[in-house]
Amino acid sequence: MLLNYRRCHELRDFNGYRREDGSIGVRNHVIIMNTSGELSSLTKKIASMVPGVIPVVHQGGNAQFTEDFNQTLQTLKGTAMHPNVSATLLLDMGNEEVSREIIKDSHKKGRVVHALSVNSDKTMGEVIEGAKRWLESAVLESKKEPKVLASVTELIVGLECGGSDSWSGITANPSIGSFSDMMVNRGGTSVLAETTEAIGAEHILAKQSINKHVANQFLSIVARYEKRAKYSGEDVRSANPSPGNIAGGLTTLEEKSLGCIKKGGSTPLMEVVEYAHQPSKKGFVFMDTPGYDVESVTGLAAGGAQIVLFSTGKGSPTGSPMVPVIKIGTNQKVYENMSEHIDINAGTIITENDTINDIGCEIYQKVMSTANGEKVSAESQNHQEFAIWRLAETI
């Protein structure tokens, strides 16, 4: 693997899309996004009329308590102005605070965001035609945008897992940790997600923190999550591992969590951020997200991650509308059964005596080729899941 290590050392730059606010994208998407759940089908319908447009649909935006409304707004802001997005069309029901707030932020950052209202003095046909014309123009403009040389120091990579098995903590997750160390040591940023997946091993990750303040922040969000779960009548510790985890060979919560936190590698934990918020520091960061893959990946993307790594022992096909989601399989069987969904086979650590650093290097190379425009399996399969983490009941 000497050539691979040398290649890893040499890969420091990629060609991406420079936005007016200075951020760098690895994709150049034009998206249409509903701000109210009742417009999700219309959003998909309009997107289907314009080749190259991606629909981003969700069920929030209305009848929400303040904490959920703010979470929806934060997530949609991060999505509309994501570095991988060239232009965004918002579809709303008229005079919506969500659209106003996103448009206001887009003006500050020089991003291309436009809103159209269904409840207006126009007919539905006129609204659809107006949306179609705007999107067609945005797609044409996006094709004129040149790629520029960018540095690995500008990359934010999310770290996610779905369907842990007994091999997750031995193959895929520590390999992602090896990648994370490479990334951080080159000046980039990796963001570990899923608060539930740290419960039982939170004291270990807290010790990895850069200082006591960050350690206390991390322990606080774990305690907050458990408290919220108990308030609803659930005990996260007794409910884990899940039936799927048990079928995969995990026997205790600690086994699952110890494997999951290995994705963070060995560098200091620099910062803890809330769901869908962008890190203010470079290096290894933790984001408070749920264990549900789709909501967690959505939060990582809205927080600025241009690429997400996703380890899986069950072969989850989860993708994202905005970011490439690179799948790392934990074992040979899942790779063979779902090879069309999985990009990297960490099972070779078992079958071919590859090392964790070998696979970590392979992941690093895959991230850099993806940043340069190479499609990953989730993109080729058109997997574009999107869901916002709900915190309360609907009003």
Give the gist of this structure.
The chain has 395 residues and is α/β, with parallel strands linked by helices. It contains 16 helices and 14 strands.
How many helical elements? 16
- Tally of domains: 2
The side-by-side strand order for the widest beta sheet comes to: 10-11-9-8-12-13-14
Radius of gyration: 21 Å
Describe what you observe in this structure.
The chain has 395 residues and is of the alpha/beta class. It folds into 2 domains: 29-142, Sugar-phosphate isomerase, RpiB/LacA/LacB (Ribose 5-phosphate Isomerase B, Chain: A, 3-Layer(aba) Sandwich); 152-380. The protein has helices spanning 2-10, 40-48, 66-80, 97-109, 124-142, 172-185, 202-207, 212-231, 236-239, 243-247, 253-260, 293-302, 332-337, 348-351, 356-371, 377-380, and strands spanning 13-18, 24-25, 29-34, 53-56, 85-92, 112-117, 148-151, 156-162, 189-192, 269-273, 283-287, 307-312, 325-329, 344-345. A hairpin with a 5-residue loop joins β1 and β2. The protein is globular.
Write the layout of secondary structure elements.
Layout: H1 2-10, E1 13-18, E2 24-25, E3 29-34, H2 40-48, E4 53-56, H3 66-80, E5 85-92, H4 97-109, E6 112-117, H5 124-142, E7 148-151, E8 156-162, H6 172-185, E9 189-192, H7 202-207, H8 212-231, H9 236-239, H10 243-247, H11 253-260, E10 269-273, E11 283-287, H12 293-302, E12 307-312, E13 325-329, H13 332-337, E14 344-345, H14 348-351, H15 356-371, H16 377-380
Parallel strand pairs: 3-4, 3-5, 5-6, 8-9, 8-12, 9-11, 10-11, 12-13, 13-14
Antiparallel strand pairs: 1-2, 1-7
Helix pairs in contact: 1-15, 3-4, 3-12, 6-15
